[in-house]
Predict the 3D structure of the following.
Amino acid sequence: MGPGLYSDIGKKARDLLYKDYQTDQKFTLTTYTLNGIAISASGTKKNELIFGELQSQLKNKNISFDVKATSDSKLLTTVTVDELATPGLRSIFNFIVPDQQLGKVELQYLHDYVGVTAAVGLTANPIVNLSGVVGTNVYSVGVDVSFDTATGNFIKCNGGLSVINADLIASLTVNDKGDSINASYYHLVSPLSSTAVGAELTHNFSTNENSLTFGTQHAMDPLTIVKARLNNYGKASALIQHEWRPKSFFTISGEIDSKAIEKGAKVKLDPVSMDPKGIIVIMTSARTGDRNRRSQFMVNSDGSHGNSLKFGLEETADDDLDEYPQRPGKKRRLTADQVEFLEKNFEVENKLEPERKLQLAKDLGLKPRQVAIWFQNRRARWKAKQLEKGYESLKSSYDSLKLDHDNLLKENEKLQAEVVHLSSKLLQEEKDSSSWESFQLRICPDKLQPGIDAQVMLCKQEDFSSANSAVLESESPRHVDDGGYSNQSQVVGCCGFLRPERHSCSNEFQVEDQALWFWP
């Protein structure tokens, strides 16, 4: 057993302190065919972004093919050849369609006293990464450097050493070109109960910031294990994991921030099921005290519980994929000149293509991932402003329409009142007219029966003092009064008396001077 690779320095302590504490929301379904082909479908939500992937893996003897299609129209292909030409030599060939510039070729060589890794990007001016470790399974020392052939500068330079004992592993690494130092410690207290303790201390010289994390684990029985950790920021985490069937785990974890107790604790429920014919992994998490509720999903293809598939990260030739997303680290802030330069480029084009990302990273001396994250955050702020402008415009239109609507309602109410007033007036006039016609019909029924003779009202002047007054016979066609006579031509219709003026009759005699009777 040799010293391993550079990435193995301090790995035991990192696994104890950060493994199984996941934050990404993932779902993965993996199945295996009878001929050994593995097919995986996965979905991930990272912040407000959602990623989807479909992956297929085929292995034939010492050659394996891994093809992955992502939701952003990328096809990632990895070809791995083990035991190439000599034992311990492995070659890895990666390329991405349509971004061929992000592809790389990597060689790994493991020996009893040395472990070497070399990777070069498939571009005209590639970034070359070299790492090597020398030593034994007890002592080892190594370096990890990245060189940009376009600028002729080292963009990464790390070094580390490790001391391994039967139950003790200590490591020390210097990162970021000597700007930060990291020391870790892992001690296996009891192999029977898998009880272990560990700690990690990180110091940044430029910001003078320190990060200290303690952790421990203990196996309550062969199938149940508990873990806990605490850092100097006041965050405490704990989890319990039970293997309820072979390669199937049920995990409950929680985290609380002692500096923000009022926000509540994060609680996670993680049932993990692995089967030779298929893998279904579901993780859910909820945060009490606020409205954030999330569902998290994860899977490991090797049967162990952890994070073997990574999502939502930019695939670049020199990006270091962080295996422990909750590991505290230095926040690399951009300078004012870098931000101004990026702002000008964002105004020209707010979409970041892979070639442009690499060029900006080279011009500013940053990692492509830093440029991608800056553009992502800047686009989020730009979209938020666009939404605010759209909201203000819609709100102004809504207010204008609402004002017009209110005015129309008032006009409608006014018109309705006028209609009611005119309707009442018309009904009153119709009522008065009907009353007048009814009165006329009561007085002059001959209007309803024009063919029937109406009663005739006669006016005759009497001499009340004369004794010679005579009464006409009913059959006589005429009557005589004081030697005179009157015939039917003197009869006036009954309705004619309504038109003459008051105190008059049809013969224009005064009322007190005439006698009035009806002719039968």
